């Protein structure tokens, strides 16, 4: 008889687990998805022929297994695939080459250039910040000297207490650069000051980068004609190329689901898990949408806060419930705006076509607007937009359910976003063609609130023998997509090999080679 596996959630972690298990005929696999969508935050939204990537997903990993896994689902685009297989290097592909090619097959990974910049003082700065002549001109020599001196000072005299994100930033970039480019933006993202956020967020997302490494990387670029696609010796935020599905990230996860279904996996949508019955340190019954399930193994990607709330167990400590109840999440809004053109007249660093700048996304450092980032979907893939002569962007707002931004009516939010673009001089209002709003709850698990006591939750979860928590919300960890996949792969390995300890799952993205830098 096959072992029954129940997977909660059809995001990258859940679908990775389903795919890996479906390759083994030993398992009867069912996915319960609370919504009607698959891919989680990595899904692609189709609106009036144009596609939205929620948050922007670069398909890049320092894990060979993940890089090969993606290519097994969707092969690399045509002639580039041959170049990659022969040399393991990346052919130059300009992000400005955005005219769709009718000869490119649909189920492919494109190879894309990565470019992100910061809009600050109504000027564009390199991201990560470089000491270019333009940076010096935009910031002014006095501020540059202050940045340099404060960085040198903290290099020799670091703060001893690095428990907060603020001190983490200061030790790596100096006080002046922290105040200029990190402090206000990070508070915009999380809604609280950096001195209220655990440094564990920094240790997970921005561990390896410093001003020195950025300068060294910039110097090395001048002596390289081609970059190895694995880019393993480069901090993740410094990578210059990445894979991207032709029709956005959701295309890959839809393909994964199709393979899973052909392998016998079942999926039930609109199936929110309401109750988990625990007996003798095992999940005995699962209730979802008035249906009852039993399984030998449960892989959960649902938010830890909701997971603990749904558990019925006489042994669970009230303190564990209290910690879970007070975990904090940051919610997310994307306002998609279709434009005739952008208002870019003073950027001499890059050639523009139809006023289309080459950025994948732009960080908005300006304090007089609430928008945090702007995606330029044309530059992720030219197939994200129906008419390549138009410009399709997404304004990202970091917020909380019920706050001022979240509570705006859709038309009010569209108008608000458009007016912010006008305010920072990126568009003329007359060039707006269409717009839409996408809201996502629990997009980012936060490293404040009751997070300092999260280990108590982890200890309890580890006592439940047949429960495996994976993925971003499943582990309450700001994982990248590849880290979520790796946690799912490890959970599958534990099930297949009857490994009792869960420590190897929790250790994914705590080892240095998996850290992202920023």
Task: Tell me about this structure.
This protein has 16 helices and 20 strands. The protein has helices at 12-22, 64-73, 78-87, 133-139, 141-156, 165-190, 200-205, 211-221, 249-262, 304-310, 318-325, 410-423, 454-463, 472-475, 481-496, 503-506; strands at residues 3-8, 27-32, 44-47, 50-53, 109-113, 116-120, 123-126, 241-245, 266-268, 273-279, 282-288, 291-293, 297-300, 311-312, 327-339, 361-364, 373-376, 391-399, 432-449, 467-469. It starts with a strand and ends in a 12-residue tail after the last helix. A seven-stranded mixed sheet has the order 7-6-16-17-18-15-19. A five-stranded parallel sheet has the order 9-2-1-13-20, with helices on one face. It has a four-stranded mixed sheet with strand order 12-11-10-14.
Question: Per DSSP, what share of the residues sits in E-state strands of 2 or more residues?
Answer: 15-25%
Most strands sheet: 7 strands, mixed
Low-confidence stretches: 86-96, 512-518
If you compute it from the alpha carbons, what radius of gyration comes out, rounded to the nearest whole angstrom? 23 Å
Q: Number of DSSP helices?
A: 16
The overall pLDDT average reads: 87
Structural class: alpha/beta
**Kindly, what is the distance between the CA atoms of the first and last residues, rounded to a whole number of angstroms?**
48 Å
**Shape call:** globular
Strand order of the largest sheet: 7-6-16-17-18-15-19
The tally of strands reads 20
What's the helical proportion of residues? Answer: 25-40%
């Amino acid at each position: 008889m096959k072992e029954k596996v129940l997977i909660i959630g059809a995001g990258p972690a859940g679908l990775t687990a389903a795919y890996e298990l479906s390759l083994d005929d030993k398992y009867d696999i069912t996915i319960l998805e609370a919504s009607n969508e698959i891919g989680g935050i990595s899904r692609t939204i189709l609106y009036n022929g144009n596609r939205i990537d929620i948050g922007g997903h670069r398909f890049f990993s320092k894990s060979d297994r993940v890089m090969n896994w993606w290519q097994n689902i969707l092969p690399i685009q045509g002639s580039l695939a041959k170049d990659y297989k022969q040399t393991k290097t990346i052919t130059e592909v300009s992000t400005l080459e955005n005219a769709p090619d009718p000869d490119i097959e649909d189920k492919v990974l494109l190879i894309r250039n990565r470019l992100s910049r910061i809009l600050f003082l109504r000027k564009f700065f390199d991201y990560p910040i470089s000491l270019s002549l333009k940076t010096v001109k935009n910031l002014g020599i006095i501020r540059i000297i202050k940045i340099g001196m404060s960085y040198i000072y903290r290099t020799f005299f670091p703060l001893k207490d690095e428990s907060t994100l603020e001190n983490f930033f200061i030790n790596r970039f100096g006080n002046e650069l922290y105040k200029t480019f990190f402090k206000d933006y990070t508070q915009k993202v999380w809604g609280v000051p950096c001195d209220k956020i655990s440094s564990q967020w920094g240790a997970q997302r921005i561990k390896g980068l410093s001003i020195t490494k950025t300068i060294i990387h910039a110097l090395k670029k001048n002596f390289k004609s081609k970059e190895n696609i694995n880019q393993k010796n480069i901090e993740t935020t410094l990578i210059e190329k990445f894979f991207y599905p032709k029709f956005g990230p959701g295309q890959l996860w839809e393909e994964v689901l199709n393979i899973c279904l052909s392998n016998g996996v079942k999926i039930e949508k609109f199936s929110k898990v309401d109750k988990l019955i625990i007996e003798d340190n095992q999940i005995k019954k699962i209730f979802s949408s008035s249906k009852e399930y039993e399984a030998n193994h449960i892989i959960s990607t649902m938010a830890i806060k909701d997971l603990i709330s749904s558990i019925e167990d006489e042994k669970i400590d009230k303190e564990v419930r209290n910690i879970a109840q007070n975990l904090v999440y940051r919610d997310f809004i994307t306002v998609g705006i279709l434009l005739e053109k952008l208002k870019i007249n003073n950027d001499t660093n890059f050639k523009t076509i139809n006023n289309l700048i080459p950025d994948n996304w732009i960080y908005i450092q300006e304090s007089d607007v609430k928008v945090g980032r702007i995606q330029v979907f044309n530059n992720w893939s030219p197939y994200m937009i129906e008419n390549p002569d138009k410009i399709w962007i997404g304004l990202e707002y970091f917020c909380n359910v019920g706050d001022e931004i979240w509570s705006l009516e859709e038309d009010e939010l569209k108008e608000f976003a458009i007016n912010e673009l006008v305010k920072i001089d990126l568009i003329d209002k007359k060039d707006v063609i269409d717009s839409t709003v996408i809201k996502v709850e629990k997009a980012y698990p936060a490293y404040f609130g009751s997070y300092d006591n999260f280990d108590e939750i982890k200890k309890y979860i580890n006592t439940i023998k047949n429960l495996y928590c994976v993925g971003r919300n499943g582990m309450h960890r700001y994982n990248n997509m590849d880290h979520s996949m790796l946690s799912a792969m490890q959970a599958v390995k534990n099930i297949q090999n009857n490994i009792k300890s869960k420590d190897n799952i929790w250790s994914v993205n705590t080892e240095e080679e998996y850290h992202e830098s920023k």
